[in-house]
Amino acid sequence: MENSRAYARAIAEAIEQQLELPVVVASTLAEARELLDRHDDWFLALTGLVLADGDRETVIDCFQDRGLSTVVVTGVYDEDLRERVLRRRVIDVVLKSTPGSVDYIVWLVKRLERNRRISALVVDDSMSARLHTATLLKMFGYRVVEAIDGAAALKALESDATIRLAIIDQEMPGMQGVELTQRLRALRARDRVAVIGVSGRDDATLVARFLKSGANDFLRKPFSREEFFCRVSQNVDQLELIGSLQDLATRDFLTGLPNRRHFLEQAERLVPQMRAAGRRLAMAILDIDHFKRINDSWGHEAGDHALRAVAAALSAHARDGDHVARFGGEEFCLLAPDLEGAALLDYFDSLRQRIEHLVVHSPGGELRMTVSIGVRAVTADDDLQCLLAEADRRLYLAKAGGRNRVVASG
Ligand SMILES: Nc1nc2c(ncn2[C@@H]2O[C@H](COP(=O)(O)OP(=O)(O)OP(=O)(O)O)[C@@H](O)[C@H]2O)c(=O)[nH]1
């Protein structure tokens, strides 16, 4: 809600384009109320304070009475006003004239939207401190899990994979915050959970002890809401950045499947483990037939659609414990444990049929394709290179034998 249509448009466009979230603009309080009454699934209100039909308090009430998260965007810098507004459970006050204010707002909206899928663990034996931190985190959109001591915190972490952030108080009976941080790190590495240590004690060594034990950051109590939000957001941003870098390094960009390098790293570990445990392991290499023709007659974009469709079929076919990857070009890989004899042939032939029946809707029309699959089931002396070479040799036999077939022996 904003009376300057130009500024409102700039924010709305930036959010819609960069975050793909729908934005509705109101320029008066009356319009905003009508919109709010029309749906009840609003996620966030961004509002100015100067409107033709309402004063500041009424503007804020309009959103807060409906329990809607609110960010104030104001043209006036006034420290007193800022303090008063922040006391009203407003998430943030952004000054329009600050350079980059639109970028900041887009970042803030993105952060708040993503927070809804992140759980934060609050560990503190003091109920009031726990409640305070939990309330702040909920205000920023996080799901919150509370633990009254270290043991309860470790239990929560073991059972809840959505926990990506832990706020840990130092002064707790039994296990103190630093020790809990060490034990937490044995369960979850730094790229999985961000830890922020908290303490009200004036202990010069504590910050270093927390950080050396694996904490990402430290906050001294009492902290302001703004400092808390900045620290928490920075740490969660970093975690997500590490996640996207890991994705870039391990995933194939076009299909989203693990890439060749990641697949080989996993296989390098898995093959000897399975052999030592006496379990069967099948390596399959799958290649789309005459893919060059698909590209040549339907266009490169249609070829990309086909690659994505095969990747999706492969993922859907894979069982728990199977590993799939795009090996490169139009070639895919599947490592499947515990298959032999007729069950093995059935498994790969049904994958072949699944792809044969795919209809890919591309800009040039509907296209179909087939695949050839070479399979090697592990024998006692096969190492990874052997498995791959044998699967590849059988793929060649499948191609030479007429394509659209599985070759698992010979
Ligand atoms: N669209 C698209 N094409 C790709 C991609 N990666 C590789 N290709 C193409 O895949 C084709 C592979 O062709 P070939 O290796 O000659 O084999 P083929 O036509 O599939 O024939 P056979 O394997 O003998 O059945 C080449 O034309 C590459 O340009 C990609 O990411 N997207």
Automatic annotation (TrEMBL):
Modification 4-aspartylphosphate occurs at: 169
Enzyme class: transferase
Keyword Chaperone listed: no
Catalysed reaction equations from the record: 2 GTP = 3',3'-c-di-GMP + 2 diphosphate
InterPro entries the record matches: CheY-like_superfamily (IPR011006), Diguanylate_Cyclase (IPR050469), GGDEF_dom (IPR000160), Nucleotide_cyclase (IPR029787), Rev_trsase/Diguanyl_cyclase (IPR043128), Sig_transdc_resp-reg_receiver (IPR001789)
Domain annotation GGDEF: ranges: 279-410
Domain of life, source organism: Bacteria
Annotated Response regulatory domain residues: 119-236
Record keywords, A-Z: Phosphoprotein
The EC number(s) this enzyme carries: 2.7.7.65
Matches recorded under PANTHER family: DIGUANYLATE CYCLASE DGCM-RELATED, REGULATORY COMPONENTS OF SENSORY TRANSDUCTION SYSTEM
Name by which UniProt lists this protein: diguanylate cyclase
Native source species: Luteimonas terrae
Taxonomic classification: Bacteria, Pseudomonadati, Pseudomonadota, Gammaproteobacteria, Lysobacterales
